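Q: Please design a sequence for this.
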């Protein structure tokens, strides 16, 4: 399944922004059916098709807008050859979007704003390349914004912690190509949601250091969730190392 999904994603590049939604409801409790596996400490229960269908029903019947909202080579002054990874959120009375652009050297994260989710005005770069020799010299792609709520029906509104907004980002150490490994993750903060600063210029929040054999090649794009009780966690998709990590945001 993972291989097929990756093949599908490859077919969408280069191109315009493609929004892929993964729906996970924290309020849904699995319906208990027949146990399909069991060990000494856990029972795994099969969820019947009817229950899954009822969970998914409110989120079906989407319609595609017939035109690009951000074209593959946007006229934003950054010389992007293709764009990817849109992240839409709201600040004040405007919608905000980060999108990742590839210019032939590496990634940069651009910022745009809108009042209707269709017409977007470029607002410059949210974050560009790190200094030569640093872990994010190959560029950054914002991915894991700390939010007020992760409920599926809530607006994506950034949450302040210690007086600042926070986001996790994926990054690469080298310029000159597409996702030159090994990847890593960094952390950025902002006081106003517009001007973003690196939490560290020389240490990633998550890297391949200490990773197991199967995960030692690359860290990929992060997501961010907030546990009940307060601690922050990083969720990384396939091709990533979910290894032991320490960052200054474990107390979020």
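A: Design:
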């Amino acid at each position: 399944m993972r291989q097929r999904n990756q093949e599908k994603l490859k077919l969408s590049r280069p191109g315009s922004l493609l929004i892929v939604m993964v729906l996970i409801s924290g309020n849904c409790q699995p319906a208990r059916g027949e146990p399909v596996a069991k060990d000494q400490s856990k029972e795994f229960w099969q969820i019947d098709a009817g229950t899954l269908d009822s969970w998914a029903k409110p989120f079906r019947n989407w319609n595609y807008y017939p035109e690009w909202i951000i074209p593959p080579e946007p006229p934003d002054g950054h010389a992007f050859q293709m764009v990817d990874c849109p992240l839409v959120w709201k600040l004040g009375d405007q919608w905000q979007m980060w999108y990742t652009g590839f210019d032939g050297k590496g990634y940069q994260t651009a910022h745009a704003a809108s009042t209707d989710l269709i017409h977007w005005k470029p607002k410059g770069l949210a974050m560009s390349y790190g200094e030569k020799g640093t872990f994010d010299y190959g560029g950054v792609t914002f991915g894991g914004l700390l939010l007020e709520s992760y409920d599926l029906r809530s607006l994506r509104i950034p949450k302040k912690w210690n007086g600042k907004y926070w986001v996790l980002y994926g990054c690469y150490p080298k310029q000159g190509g597409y996702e030159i490994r090994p990847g890593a993750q960094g952390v950025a903060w902002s006081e106003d949601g517009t001007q973003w600063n690196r939490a560290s210029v020389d240490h990633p929040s998550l890297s391949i250091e200490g990773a197991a054999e199967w995960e030692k090649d690359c860290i990929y794009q992060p997501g961010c969730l907030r546990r009940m009780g307060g601690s922050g966690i990083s969720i990384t998709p396939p091709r990533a190392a979910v290894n032991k990590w320490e960052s200054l945001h474990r107390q979020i």
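Q: Thanks. Anything notable?
A: Residues 25 and 152 are 7 Å apart (CA to CA). The first strand starts at residue 35 and ends at 38.
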